[in-house]
Amino acid sequence: MPILGIDLGTTNSVAAVDQQVRAVSDAGCVALPSAVAFLPNGSVRVGEVARRRRAIDSANTIFSSKRIIGRRYDASETRNFMTRYPFEIVEIEGGWPAFRTRAGDISPSRIASHVLGGLLERIDLDP
Question: What are the angstrom distances between the C-alpha of 27 and each of 16, 23, 30, 31, 72?
Fold first, then answer.
C-alpha cells in the first residue's frame, strides 16, 4: 500500500507518494494553489483555475483560508483576516467562521477538504 504525504499549505499544497513528490498539473508542476472557486453553474474548481478567478469573482474564490482553520469567529486572528481579504465571513453555529459564497456558508476546514480532494484527483495512487 502506498504511503501518502501531504503538505496543505496556505498558498500552495503538495503531495508525495512513497517519498516521491507528484506532479499535480499537465505542465508537471508539483504545487497546487490552495484556492477554491465556487462557480455560477454550481461546480467547484480547485487550484490554478480557481486562483485565476480571484480577479473576476473574489467573493466566491477562497484562498489563504488555512490562516483561520481552528479559529473562532471572534478571535483576533479571524478579525484581522477579515480586514485583509475580500471575503464575506459570517459566524455559524458554535461561534465558528465561514465564508459566505454562492454555494452557501463554507467553513475553512471544508475549503481545506476541497484542496485535499483536488490533490487526490491529480495524483496516481496505484502502487
Answer: 17, 8, 9, 11, 39
